Amino acid sequence: MKTIKQLLSMKKDNEKISMITAYDYPSAKQAQNAQIDTILVGDSLGMVVLGYDSTVEVTIEDMIHHAKAVRRGAPDTFVVVDVPFGAIGIDLATDIQHSIKLYKDTKANAIKIEGAHVELIERCTKIGIPIVSHLGLMPQSVGITGYKLQGSSKEAGNKLIDEAKQVEQAGAVMLVLEAIPSDLAKVISDKLTIPVIGIGAGKDTDGQVLVYHDMLNYGSEHIAKFVKQYGDFSKGEEALKLYNKEVKDGIFPSEAHTYKKKIMGENNA
Ligand code: KIV
Ligand code: NA
């Protein structure tokens, strides 16, 4: 498993860091077998796995349920778990309680917080919870911003640079930047010591993250410009259609998938 220290040196050595989302045991196992550096149990699970309209409906319980399965599938990979909408931003004591619960129950290596919650990042860091910050497009705030490019004006860009410095100062161990102009992402990556992982932020960040279901064309309805599809799990539907037809036509099961009477009770493996 990559440690935070190793991820830091990867940045120093200009070695790119890979991250993929995973939400269950088999996808986590695939990510670990593929030797991807880090896994994110993203609250994107609300949309790609649970069928919600946005990440806003995802609960702490949802995150814990899925993150535990991911931990079992990838025991030797650095796992980050998203703090879902509504779990923080209440008051500092409650925010800390929820952060502790998520970290403790999932055995994650870090938790990810959307927005520059500087005081919370400081406090979590102080009690030993590694924090990944998430700035730029923040899907939990989609009711305010919509799904659109962030930081494109000079003021917005400067504000983002300031916030990135603040979260690093507060103790964040990594930063995710979503949907911002690539030149701004480069400036921020250069200014920070901690690794910056981009999604829709160009090639000059210290690493990249993609959503599993988007990059594998697995039931995702809207594919953003920044997504590259590396596989096509939609083909699974053809397999289901064939199965359906073979059952109806009496083709499945054939001999090969049938126990013979002769071996029943003897060698019935
Ligand atoms: O929830 C998620 O998948 C994310 C990534 C897109 C960074 O936060
Ligand atoms: Na997320």
From TrEMBL:
The keyword Transferase applies. InterPro entries: Pantoate_hydroxy_MeTrfase, Pyrv/PenolPyrv_kinase-like_dom, Pyrv_kinase-like_dom_sf. It is found in: Cytoplasm. Keywords: Cytoplasm, Magnesium, Metal-binding, Methyltransferase, Pantothenate biosynthesis, Transferase. NCBIfam families: panB, PRK00311.1. SUPFAM superfamilies: Phosphoenolpyruvate/pyruvate domain. CDD domains: KPHMT-like (cd06557). This is 3-methyl-2-oxobutanoate hydroxymethyltransferase. It catalyses: (6R)-5,10-methylene-5,6,7,8-tetrahydrofolate + 3-methyl-2-oxobutanoate + H2O = 2-dehydropantoate + (6S)-5,6,7,8-tetrahydrofolate. One of its GO terms (biological process) is methylation. It comes from Mammaliicoccus stepanovicii. Pathway: Cofactor biosynthesis; (R)-pantothenate biosynthesis; (R)-pantoate from 3-methyl-2-oxobutanoate: step 1/2. Its EC number is 2.1.2.11. It holds the Pfam family Pantoate_transf. Mg(2+) binds at residues 43, 82, 114. 3-methyl-2-oxobutanoate binds at residues 43-44, 82, 112. One of its GO terms (cellular component) is cytoplasm. The keyword Translocase does not apply. The gene is panB. Homodecamer; pentamer of dimers. The active site is at residue 178. Catalyzes the reversible reaction in which hydroxymethyl group from 5,10-methylenetetrahydrofolate is transferred onto alpha-ketoisovalerate to form ketopantoate.
